[in-house]
Amino acid sequence: MNETGFNPLYEKVITDLVEQQYSVVENFFSDAEVLVLRESLLAKYEEDMFKKSAIGNMANEVIVEAIRGDFIFWLDESSCNAAERNFFDKINDFTAYLNRTCFMGIADQEFHYAVYPPGTFYKRHLDTFQNDNRRKLSIVCYLNHEDWLPEYGGELTLYQVKGDTETALNVYPVQGRMVIFESQILEHEVKPVKQERLSITGWLKSRPEILF
Ligand code: OGA
Ligand code: MN
After folding, report:
1. Which of 41, 61, 91, 174 is most buried, by CB atoms within 10 Å?
2. Residue 116 CA: which ligand 1 atom is closest?
3. pLDDT averaged over consecutive 10-residue blocks of the chain (212 residues)?
4. Domain 8-206: top CATH class
């Protein structure tokens, strides 16, 4: 951050979110930061620490491979390694900026690593639950090698609605690319992958709403 507290990268994300409900940034994390995150994801994956992803939450969790086929590992900020600590420090700095400059009211967060083995996908969905609307911003950072080719598939397709037209935007999961989007607005899907696809994915959340 510079002396004025103005962060051009964060400002670009904020402007994008206001104008188009999503932002794609290439340089939120350095190549070195992405590499150590990939190493730490792979170490945990090889140790069988991942579980099959589910849809729904809490008692409603069900595994439905026809909807979602990735494997995930939930990160715990209180017991993470140096690569993950650095990841959370940067995310927390970004969150503090959003709260300070946009009064976003982000009070909580959750992140997991994700691995999509070849043949898997995640069908079109919204990142909120029927019984919990605290997820405000979805963040995905891709931990693939830099030579991800379009023929490997696995693009994130964001469905943006303007008036009565819908536009589908494809974002390829190239190394270090980060996508941030409005969890409650943008439906999206992960197209079938032909190569193992790695990412760190999470949500910035508001405080639970208390209804009187
Ligand atoms: C998700 C999701 C997108 C991606 O995990 O909810 O939509 O590009 N991920 O991995
Ligand atoms: Mn999603």
Report:
1. 41
2. 10
3. 80 97 97 98 97 88 90 96 98 97 95 98 93 94 94 98 95 97 97 98 89 67
4. mainly beta
